[in-house]
Amino acid sequence: MKVLIVSDTHRSNKNYYQVLEMHRPDMVIHCGDSEGSEYALTAAAECPVHIVGGNNDYFAELPRELEFSIDKYKVWVTHGHSYYVSMGNEGIKREAISRGKDIVIYGHTHKPVIDRDKRVIALNPGSLSYPRQDNHRPSYIIMEMDRMGELHFTISYL
Fold first, then answer.
1. CB-hemisphere CA count at 13 Å for 18?
2. Domain positions in the chain
3. What CA–CA distance (Å, rounded) separates 90 from 48?
4. pLDDT in tens, 92-120
5. For residue 106, what are the contacts with CB-CB under 8 A and spacing of at least 6?
6. CATH code for the domain defined by 2-45+52-111+130-145
């Protein structure tokens, strides 16, 4: 299974469409700030799409958080702004652990992160439209499950 994880597209979807075409994922997770383009993002994908609302999704009828399972892994998706992720991800990781989640996926910072520790995996794909990390390249995460049910994560750049 291949999961495309994106965030913070801010209604600038050209890179999203390009990444969809490149990877043809089995699932898409969008961590918010789609700014009204959630229907276009969903229609473009030929797979299930999970989108949460971000701090710029003022009028969207999107859930603020989603909880679901991918195989044996319990996943929590949120934009992250309500958990002060701009100050670091320790708080959101603690919250994920308290909820019994294996993986927390968030956005908001526009900087990609893969943070694995013994208790939880924290993922932030950065931004496909307005990156803020040092190289300023649009980023996303590919999450793949191997035949043994183990997950592998890759930060990718355009």
1. 13
2. 2-45+52-111+130-145
3. 29
4. 999 999 999 999 999 999 999 999 999 99
5. 7, 31, 77, 78, 79, 80, 83, 85, 89, 92, 122, 123, 124
6. 3.60.21.10
Element of type H or E holding 95: helix 90-98
Q: Give the up-direction half-sphere exposure of residue 149: CA atoms within 13 A in the CB hemisphere.
A: 5
Q: How many CA atoms lie within 13 A of 140 on its CB side?
A: 26
Mean pLDDT of 2-30: 98
Query: Has this prediction a pTM greater than 0.90?
Result: yes
Residue linked to tokens 């789609």: 34
26-41 pLDDT, tens digit per residue, is 999 999 999 999 999 9
